[in-house]
């Protein structure tokens, strides 16, 4: 069990993501870098590099540019990851903050939502 949004947690998330054929199929034409972080935390941000729907790399995020960024408070990440709030509702109510191409996000909203739902499948230390 790894602490949420650490490099170790991201490795487990990568495995869950890549083992989900529905998600990979939905994102087969999608490639991007996604940065995740916890609002108000000194824990370093992490990232996932996605190529044609598959996560090919994860780790600690540097200062570079990312195609998308997502962040939330620890409480809201936990609610999202445990399925207490859905991804669309979290974004609509600003419980999950987002930066990046809204057009691309809307095009892939179903798979993006699925990627967030899959967080609940990673054994997590909160």
Order of helices and strands: EHHEEEEHHEHHE
Total domain modules: 1
* C-alpha end-to-end distance: 10 Å
**What would you say the CATH architecture is?**
2-Layer Sandwich
- Counting H and I runs of at least 4 residues, what is the number of helices? 6
Radius of gyration: 13 Å
* Beta-strand content estimate: 25-35%
Strand order of the largest sheet: 4-3-2-5-6
CATH class descriptor name: Alpha Beta
Classify the helix fraction into a percent range.
25-40%
Largest sheet: 5 strands, mixed
Given as residue ranges, the uncertain stretches (5+ residues, pLDDT < 50) are: none
Mean pLDDT: 94
Shape: globular
- How many runs of DSSP E, i.e. beta strands? 7
Which class do the helix and strand fractions yield? alpha/beta
CATH names the topology as Nonspecific Lipid-transfer Protein, Chain A
Q: Going by CATH, what is the homologous superfamily?
A: SCP2 sterol-binding domain
